[in-house]
Amino acid sequence: MILCTNVFNGKAHDLTIFKRTLKVHSQILIVADSGYRGLGKIHKNSQLPIRHKADINKLTDEQKATRKATNKVIASIRMKIEHVIGRVKRFKIAAEKYRNRLKRLLLRFNLICGILNYERCGR
Predict the structure, then answer these.
(1) Hey, which end of the chain has fewer CB within 10 Å, N or C?
(2) 3-state secondary structure at position 46
(3) What is d(CA 88, CA 116) in angstroms, rounded to the nearest whole number?
(4) For residues 29, 74, 86 and 17, what is the CA-based torsion angle, rounded to 10 degrees?
(5) pLDDT tens digit string along 2-24?
């Protein structure tokens, strides 16, 4: 299901938007991409891709395999989310500069999300 919370300027950072808009229960698992670095400090039950720290720590083969497997699972979950974002962007309301009245932007965006939710449920 596509959830529209609020509309922000394109320059706003992902984590800033998360802090300002969403209040998520602590038991819910959040799987996020690397744009949400620092999310673990705000929401303890979150899963982010594991970064490779080049010269600080040399990872063993077992640690490398674990990191690779974890990142692959996160990427497969994120892929589904990115596909939905791509479907929203086909309407050009989120992909390009919005040139109509800002008063109606949120209404139109929610209508598009509703259409996509209806289409997904009908399959």
Answers:
(1) C
(2) strand
(3) 8
(4) 50
(5) 666 667 777 888 888 888 877 88
Which segments of the chain does DSSP mark as H helices, in order? Answer: 14-21, 39-42, 61-89, 105-121
Q: Residue 55: left if φ>0, alpha if ψ -120 to 50, beta else—which one?
A: alpha
One-letter amino acid of 113: C
Q: What is the pLDDT of residues 54-74, one digit of tens each?
A: 645 677 788 888 888 989 999
Nearest to 98 by CA among 113, 86, 85, 109: 109
DSSP string, 7-18: ---TTS-HHHHH
Q: Whole-angstrom Cα distance, residue 123 to residue 120?
A: 6
Least trusted range by pLDDT, from 2-6, 30-34, 108-112, 116-120: 2-6
- What CA–CA distances, in Å, run from 102 to 20, 71, 78, 119? 20, 38, 30, 26
